[in-house]
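Below is a filled-in request sheet from our internal design queue. Each sheet records the structural input a requester submitted and the sequence that came back. We keep these sheets so that new team members can see what a complete request looks like end to end.

REQUESTER: design group, bay 2
PRIORITY: normal
MODE: inverse folding
CHAIN LENGTH: 470
BACKBONE (tokenized):
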């Protein structure tokens, strides 16, 4: 191999493994000459080769930088086409069977719904929590009853303001994680037997919440990059009474889809005309790659029909179980449901998170977290492209920590799940993301765990298991 090709391969491996992360600057030509004991011509040729492969980009008068996105070699899945049935749900037993597999630490957690704990500032959060517990004002057991700690709600309102949305602390209800928030929203605006709309595929926790409420669901076609079909939703609203829409518009679980800003405005306007509340499960919004945050739905919601649900579990404090609902016109109804169900959310944890946000540093943590996830995504994509067979399709996200794969139609995702478990690997099979048990040849993989050698070996094994079913 020629010298410049060897240097290009070595640098490419650093990029694929995440040592060099998207947006980071490569050593200058002079630095690279000194490091590798090569000529400037060799370095220039190596960088030009990496640029031709879509791994780096040259910026005038600045040098070479790792590309934020590589050119994708696998095609993306097409728009989903769910069966036009309204479904009474029976999904929980099936989902619990699958989820048990991710609890074993010996299993490679590609099927997990959570990022790795080591990505978060848990030591600093622990100090905030210890301080809050030691200095807890006994009156807080009364004053921090729902809607929740006043300073935490104020800090959340400030973050909304930073995203262009004017949200009053009075409409924010603190919850025990986003899951409780989703349940409270459904309880506030639906009755058993009502029809709600969800994406197809959709996050199974939303299906479980709808099942507990005794709701029927209509699955709406969804594109793996742009999200739910507004045209299909409009057709449903013309012919049926829909009590609520339960959507993920930012880096949807499982596909990673992010609805473009213009389409988001169109969606909120459509639901406003029909007076249908949008319950937005938005726990991944802070995990965008690149420099531009997604448009906040509350910023384009003058009528208050958006019930914005989020939490700190995916971006800051897993296990602390602090979420919230910015419920708009439905805030009083959500508050009543909270008081009638769990009464309050743990007071010291609310105080600790309020203190952490007030101290600053959250945005710095988020910038580092986004860079790490973007690098881990690039590494997992490269591994899938290298080891999965022809006929595989890949939905590549620009945020979150999930990859959605559509495998060749002969592959049975449930059989693959069992074979992978026997090999010490978990994955999330497609049927758990559909009330109709569709997506039988699709899987979701998690790139939120920074153990590249272990994950890449697992992907190679998965590729062989997929090939064995062809």
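RETURNED SEQUENCE:
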């Amino acid at each position: 191999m020629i010298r410049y090709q060897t240097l290009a391969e070595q640098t490419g491996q650093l990029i694929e493994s995440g040592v060099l992360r998207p947006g980071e600057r490569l050593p200058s030509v002079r630095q690279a000459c000194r490091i590798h004991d090569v000529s400037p011509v060799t370095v220039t040729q190596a960088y030009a080769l990496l640029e031709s492969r879509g791994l780096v980009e040259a910026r005038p008068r600045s040098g070479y930088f790792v590309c934020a996105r590589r050119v994708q070699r696998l095609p993306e899945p097409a728009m989903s086409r769910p069966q036009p049935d309204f479904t009474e749900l029976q999904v929980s037993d099936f989902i619990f069977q699958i989820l048990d597999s991710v609890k074993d630490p010996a299993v490679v957690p590609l099927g997990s719904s959570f990022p790795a704990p080591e990505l978060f500032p848990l030591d600093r959060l622990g100090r905030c929590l210890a301080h809050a517990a030691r200095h807890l004002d006994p009156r807080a057991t009364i004053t921090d009853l729902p809607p929740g700690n006043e300073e935490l709600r104020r800090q959340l309102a400030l973050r909304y303001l930073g995203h262009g949305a004017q949200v009053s602390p009075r409409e924010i209800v603190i919850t025990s994680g986003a899951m409780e928030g989703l349940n409270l929203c459904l309880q506030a605006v639906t009755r058993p037997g009502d029809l709600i709309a969800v994406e197809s595929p959709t996050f199974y926790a939303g299906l479980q919440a709808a099942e507990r409420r005794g709701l029927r669901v209509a699955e709406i076609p969804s594109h793996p990059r742009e999200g739910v079909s507004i045209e299909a939703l409009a057709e449903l609203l013309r012919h049926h009474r829909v009590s609520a829409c339960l959507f993920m518009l930012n880096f949807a679980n499982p596909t990673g889809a992010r609805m473009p800003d213009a389409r988001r405005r169109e969606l909120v306007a459509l639901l406003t005309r029909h007076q249908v509340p949008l319950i937005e499960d938005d726990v991944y919004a802070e995990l965008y790659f690149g420099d531009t945050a997604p448009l906040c739905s509350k910023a384009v919601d003058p009528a208050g029909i958006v019930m914005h649900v989020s939490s700190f579990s995916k971006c800051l404090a897993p296990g602390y179980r602090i979420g919230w609902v910015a419920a708009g016109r439905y805030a009083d109804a959500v508050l009543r449901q909270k008081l009638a169900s769990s009464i309050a959310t743990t007071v010291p944890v609310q105080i600790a998170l309020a203190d952490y946000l007030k101290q600053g540093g959250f945005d710095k943590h988020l910038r580092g977290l986004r860079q790490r996830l973007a690098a881990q995504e690039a590494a997992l994509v490269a591994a899938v492209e290298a080891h999965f067979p022809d006929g595989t399709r890949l939905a590549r996200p620009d945020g979150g920590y999930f990859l959605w794969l559509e495998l060749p139609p002969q592959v049975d995702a449930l059989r693959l799940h069992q074979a992978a478990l026997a090999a010490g690997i978990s994955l999330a099979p497609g049927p758990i993301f559909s009330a109709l048990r569709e997506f039988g040849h699709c899987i979701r993989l998690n790139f939120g765990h920074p153990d590249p050698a272990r994950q890449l070996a697992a992907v190679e094994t998965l590729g062989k298991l997929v090939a064995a079913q062809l």
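SHEET NOTES:
- The mean pLDDT is 89.
- The first helix runs from residue 3 to 16.
FILED BY: M.R.
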